[in-house]
Amino acid sequence: MTEETKSRESLTPKQRMAIERQIMPERPGQERNQDFLEVNLGLPERLAILEAQRCLQCKKPACVQGCPVGINIPAFLERVAEGDFFGAAEVLRRDNTLPAVTGRVCPQETQCEIKCVRCKTDAPVAIGWLERFVADYEIAHRNGRPRVAACRTGFKVACVGSGPAGMTCAGELAKLGHDVTVFEAFHLPGGVLVYGIPEFRLPNSVVQDEIENLKSLGVKVETNVIIGRTLTIGQLLDEEGFDAVFIANGAGLPTFMRVRGENFKGVYSANEYLTRTNLMRAFEYPESDTPIIMGKRVCVIGGGNVAMDAVRTSKRLGADESVIVYRRALEQMPARVEEVHHAEQEGIRFEMLTAPTEVLGDEEGWVRGLRCIRMELGEPDASGRRRPVPIEGSEFTIACDLVIVAIGTGANPLITQTTLGLKTNKWGYIEADESLMTSIPGVFAGGDIIRGAATVILAMGDGKNAARNIDRYLKEQADPRVR
Fold first, then answer.
1. Complete edge-to-edge strand list for the sheet that includes strand 297-301
2. What crossing angle do the helices spanning 305-316 and 337-345 adopt, rounded to 10°?
3. What torsion do the CA atoms of 96, 10, 61, 384 make, to the nearest 10 degrees?
4. What are the phi and psi torsion angles at 375 (to 5°)?
5. What dotted CATH number matches 156-252+410-482?
């Protein structure tokens, strides 16, 4: 044990409390809004160790309760504080298949960090930043990747979708010795992590590195396979020899405003806009095969993370003005505080308490403006937020040549319509019980396809839970006495 390690261990709670929260370096707003390079630069080693020393190592760590995948947060922070970064990575990967991803996009501020006891007096420990630091350190310094489980069960499991739920489930099942194949509709694996989240927040190289880890565990990935068209769930079970299926195809069906003019040229769903940019690399057109409309004045409708991604992308694609149009107040926006802050730094204009009523166009059918009305906050609605109410006579027009609608998504019906006996709720999402088993024995589902659009980490929690229950189901089929 080095003298430096001893000094870290000898810190008293009072000394730990005296350490202020460290700040992650980031690129300047007016520089980064010109490219797709990552905004946050990550903590350097010295600051990571100092931040980890702020952890009080609570006997009953509430932060763990706030983590959907149950990471042993105090244990990994303790190892960071000791300078044992590989040890910290080992702790992280026991419960988290994708730490380099969640360290960047997980809303820790509303989950683990909000539970931190330090919130009572100052800022919580920067758990998310430290998770990213550890994962990035492992990527940069490791000598190898995970290995295939020594004991093989002989069971075959199909995971439909290579997003966070599907990849997590696949990784957990592979560790248990099952033969796992992931089916992805697009030409690249990663799901929403590569088509929905811009590279300035989550570089595709990070996602692909995590996928390589899965492959090293023995997970097979087949792209360009549309389940429901190329193969059905029934065929996977009856003809392809799979013993169980986990459906994790997300909720990617765009929702529109249903206002006049929404069919004009120059109106995108956020899903299409981001997919063209992130996955198809339309910003490199004509070097890439996919074009995209690069508006000079862009309006993005919505207030969530997807809206922030879209409006910040439009700025990087050369817009002179990029505007968020949101019908509620700033403090009611569901987007992460960090994303709103970054958008403000990058010169995004915010039109709060504003609702679109019509998309305006010219004689050739191209968008030329967005007709809006001012709103005021009334009584709380079912969500608990004060309902936005139109202000009579407050109509106005925002001149624009591109409108991006980011007000939510729904369930794609392709799988449910081609799978006999698969029950759905009134919104079209797949019904699943506590074990995530659907109405069809051996078919499980998780992530956005059962609850609607939510966070990456919640989908990962479903993937982990599903893997545990699929393993139990398979063992029960082999030996009923397992029950």
1. 267-269, 402-405, 297-301, 321-325, 349-351
2. 20
3. -90
4. -125, 160
5. 3.50.50.60
Tell me, rounded to whole angstroms, the distance of Cα 138 from its chain centroid: 21
CA distance 313 to 142: 33
Q: Does domain 3-141 have CATH number 1.10.1060.10?
A: yes
Asked if 405 and 419 touch (Cβ cutoff 8 Å), the reply is no
Specify the residue for token string 């397992």: 482
On the CB side of 241, how many CA atoms lie within 13 Å of its CA? 6
Chain-centroid distance of CA 219 in Å reads: 21
* Residue type, position 343, single letter: A
Which letter does DSSP use for residue 275 in this model?
Answer: I
CB 137, CB 149: distance < 8 Å? no
Opening angle at CA 107, ends 36 and 82, nearest 5: 95
Cα–Cα distances in angstroms (integers) from residue 89 to residues 79, 215, 313, 416, in the given order: 9, 19, 32, 39
Q: Look-up: residue for tokens 């919580």?
A: 124
- Please work out, in degrees rounded to the nearest 5, the angle formed at the alpha carbon of residue 337 by the alpha carbons of 331 and 339: 125
The closest of 26, 55, 20, 24 to 39, measured between CA atoms, is 26
Asked if pLDDT for residue 460 goes beyond 80, the answer is yes
Q: Calculate ∠ Cα 191-309-33, nearest 5°.
A: 125
At 4-56, the pLDDT tens digits run: 444 456 788 889 999 999 999 999 999 999 999 999 999 999 999 999 999 99
pLDDT digits (tens, 9 = 90+) for 167-210: 999 999 999 999 999 999 999 999 999 999 999 999 999 999 99
Query: Which CATH code is given to the segment(s) 256-407?
Result: 3.50.50.60
256-407 matches 156-252+410-482 in CATH topology: yes
Residue 143's φ and ψ, nearest 5 degrees, are: -105, -10
Residue type, 159: C
Cα–Cα distance between 433 and 100 in angstroms, integer? Answer: 30
Element (H, E) at 349: strand 349-351
Q: Where along the chain do its domains lie?
A: 3-141, 156-252+410-482, 256-407
For residues 277 and 240, is the Cβ–Cβ distance under 8 A?
Answer: no
Whole-angstrom Cα distance, residue 325 to residue 305?
13
